[in-house]
Amino acid sequence: MDHPGYSDDKAAVLARLRRIEGQVRGLTRMVEDDTYCIDVLTQVSATTRALEAVALKLLDEHLAHCVVDAARAGGPEAEAKVAEASAAIARLVRS
């Protein structure tokens, strides 16, 4: 494979990650400013959901491109890509 499955949406993924980075900096400021615990937890939850959305986008792109391409080719690479995707899904479910 020449490039990751998300290559076509790389700019959008990077923009989302930069927004999440800003959310994390905001969390740091909230703690530094002794913000009420529940307000900080609310923002932690929002940041977690944003990261999960990025993860799901990346997973979707991986399945649609990398796994599909490997499945078309068949053989051990196809089995390896499916196992790799299954492991990634398991990690996401556990997190």
TrEMBL record:
Official protein name in the record: Metal-sensitive transcriptional regulator
Keywords: Copper
Entry coiled-coil feature ranges: none
Keyword Zinc: no
Similarity remark: Belongs to the CsoR family.
Pfam families in the record: Trns_repr_metal (PF02583)
Organism encoding this protein: Aeromicrobium halocynthiae
